[in-house]
Amino acid sequence: MIRLNENYLKLKSSYLFADIAKRVAAFQQQYPDREIIKLGIGDVTRALPKVCIKAFHKAVDEMANDATFRGYGPDQGYGFLREKVAEHDFGARGAGIDADEVFISDGAKCDTGNFQELFSNDITIALPDPVYPVYVDTNVMAGRTENFTNGRYQGLVYLDGTKANGFVPGVPDVHVDLVYLCYPNNPTGAVATKAQLGQWVDYARREKALILFDAAYAAFIRDESLPQSIFEIEGAREVAVEFRSYSKTAGFTGTRCAYTVVPKNCMIYDAAGKAHPLHQFWNRRHTTKFNGVSYPVQRAAEAIYLGDGPRQVREITNFYMSNATMIRGRLTELGYACTGGTNAPYIWIDAKMDSWEFFDLLLHGAGVVCTPGAGFGKCGEGYVRISAFNNPKQVSVALDRIAGALRGHAPQPAGDATPSVN
Ligand code: MLT
């Protein structure tokens, strides 16, 4: 008899964005003439930068010729891309990362989800709440939690993100072995300062813990004083792994390319307390289960670092950030307290009502899709996330419609809201 991994029975029946897509499809079926504007899942709408398209075409042409054709590439990624990453994303910011510490992959979602395979099943895990659901669900699947009770999986340490702490929870006063951090944050758009990340690095060094740092939205940081990488913090190399993605940075959601950085002096411990470099185990896992990202895709990713690439990528992130400014400004005017949207493409809105109710209000009243905060955890209840990934015209129409739909629901006159500092 084929037996189930019963940890899957502990999971909610579907992934948050699948659940939303189902509701939107049902709405569309019921009202086929209503035009829907999607500001829910963070999916990009702009074409790939021209430099990427050019490099992509050139690489495809190479694949069309026996003399330049490439079969399997290195599992960890081609040197040409790993070197550019080390130099431009880290070296240029004073964070010393070597090319062979960079593992190219097809997505940060897979990497953040897969990385937990390296850990013992009895570790203690801390996660922020609200949180990107992948970190939680993959640990549930692996059997590191008890059941879902009162909105939380028993066995995890939740770090409450609240208005009071600006959605940047501090270190816990208990021991944990692993912590997931994401800044700029998905879903709240909050950002952590160097001092705040420094406290996490100190904590991890003291507790022999590991930080899994998701920096998928680093390219949206506009305040130069903020860290874009945890490796800008002294000592982080010993206790942190970082995930990055080209999805939002360069429009690769459908093209797929990302990377994970595992410093060679970052340690993990066996049951006897003996330290081992974590790098060798991620390398082992990667080479066993992954055959690399396609050559043309890696060439397209490399192009963002060369010639006009940085300017073109900046132009794309600016495009989405001007939507973020528009969304945050309008919702604030309507009397809603907002977090995010200044160094992140997400705006986290205090809905002052049940988050699924607010989701339904926007869907039915405005034909606009947002993401209910409750889908990101208990602390997300009463909030919704609006994504800046769309075209300005669509965003502007969506905001007019939202204003209409919220008439009579707005919490208080403009000016009474207290937007957080982030
Ligand atoms: C989101 O909307 O939270 C993201 O698009 C999800 C993802 O990157 O997997």
How would you describe this protein?
- The model is unreliable at 414-421 (pLDDT under 50).
- Helix 3 runs parallel beside helix 9 and helix 4 (108-114) runs parallel beside helix 5.
- The protein is α/β, with parallel strands linked by helices.
- The protein has helices at 16-30, 50-63, 79-90, 108-114, 133-141, 194-207, 247-250, 278-289, 295-302, 309-333, 355-366, 392-406; strands spanning 37-38, 102-105, 125-129, 148-149, 152-153, 157-160, 178-182, 210-214, 240-245, 258-261, 267-269, 275-277, 338-340, 346-350, 368-369, 371-372, 383-387.
- The chain has 2 domains: 6-47 and 310-405, Aspartate Aminotransferase, domain 1 (Alpha-Beta Complex); 51-305, Aspartate Aminotransferase, domain 2 (3-Layer(aba) Sandwich), CATH 3.40.640.10.
- The chain has 12 helices and 17 strands.
- Helices cover 35% and strands 15% of the residues.
- The longest helix has 25 residues, at 309-333.
- The chain has a 7-stranded mixed sheet, with helices on both faces. A 4-stranded antiparallel sheet has the order 13-14-17-16.
- The chain binds D-malate (MLT).
- D-malate binds at residues 41-43, 109, 186.
